[in-house]
DNA sequence: CACAATTCTGTTGTGCACAATTTGATAGTA
DNA sequence: TACTATCAAATTGTGCACAACAGAATTGTG
């Protein structure tokens, strides 16, 4: 019962899914470590930056930016609201919408994590131009993967 | 209360974490779509390939390959066992260990998803050499991120 | 105006992920 | 032998993710 391995068979180590998977695990661990002292999870960190940069956002607009649906964002935002980082208010103009905005504490927290990108860049061992090129590749890849969707 | 944006501030769109996050979301959606008809989740697909390629594995060894701990793998493997894809047996030589191996059905299922890597490559819009280069970059990045860990 | 269709958010159920702890087995040492 | 330390897997608790659905508000059409 020896396992058969044709010469043209892709081993798991040769597949893009495995490379992406292990890289994400590694990034996740480093972000977890850097964000722990700030009381933020990785998704909360991204949400904090997105809201801070794009002002008050509806849940749907934040979901488009983060590629998450309401089933993920609603409980995540409630936890951030409970932590005092964001405020959620109904949009007067359209009562179906909920506007999410940073509180003063949220802005302070955002300022407190401003050195994280630099720390991540250092940990990655890549030069700024290598990072920029990787980012560019990932952006094109994301765009292609998303356009092919039904 | 206009948001202040210094010229040197990184916008979220310029950060590697955001690019990785959106790419992972996009990959996840495509894999979910391709694997749905086979009754596999993305982590289950990776586990299936890893076990099929590296023969019977302990939970710990599979965890090293997949960068997952027992808290994630135990229930995942139990679901795969319930689906008839893998068998779990205590290692006679060391009763602390559990050996995970593919069943005949698991091998059939693995053969059934053999075209997935090619489909993913096509969806990515990248050439084989571009994919290989991206994979190489990710592998080096993963190695660096993992070595810096305490 | 009435009413059907659409839009937006939230809830429920299932699966994936880790930290912390528990249970059981092995190895090492007095 | 007994005692400790270590190791492997499983369990528990919390958070993140989607699919499917529910409910309220808005929009479009007659």
TrEMBL record, chains A, B:
Pfam family, one: MarR_2
Location in the cell: Cytoplasm
GO molecular function: DNA binding; DNA-binding transcription factor activity
Name of the protein in its database record: DNA-binding MarR family transcriptional regulator
Gene3D superfamilies, A to Z: Winged helix-like DNA-binding domain superfamily/Winged helix DNA-binding domain
UniProt keywords, alphabetically: DNA-binding
GO cellular component: cytoplasm
Biological process terms in GO annotation: response to stress
Predominant cellular place of this UniProt entry's protein: cytoplasm
Stored PROSITE patterns: HTH_MARR_2
Domain HTH marR-type: 13-143
Origin: domain of life: Bacteria
InterPro entries per record: HTH_MarR-typ, MarR/SlyA-like, WH-like_DNA-bd_sf, WH_DNA-bd_sf
């Amino acid at each position: 019962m020896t396992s058969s391995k044709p010469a043209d068979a892709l081993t798991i180590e040769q597949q893009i899914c495995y490379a992406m998977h292990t890289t994400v695990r590694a990034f996740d661990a480093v972000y977890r470590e850097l964000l722990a002292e700030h009381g933020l999870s990785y998704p909360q960190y991204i949400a904090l930056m997105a809201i801070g940069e794009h002002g008050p956002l509806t849940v749907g607009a934040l979901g488009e930016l983060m590629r998450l649906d309401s089933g993920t964002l609603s409980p995540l935002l409630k936890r951030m609201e409970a932590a005092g980082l964001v405020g959620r208010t109904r949009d007067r103009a359209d009562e179906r919408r909920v506007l999410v905005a940073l509180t003063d504490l949220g802005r302070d927290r955002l300022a407190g994590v401003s050195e994280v990108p630099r720390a991540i860049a250092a940990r990655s061992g890549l030069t700024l131009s290598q990072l920029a090129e990787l980012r560019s590749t990932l952006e094109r890849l994301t765009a292609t993967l998303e356009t092919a969707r039904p």
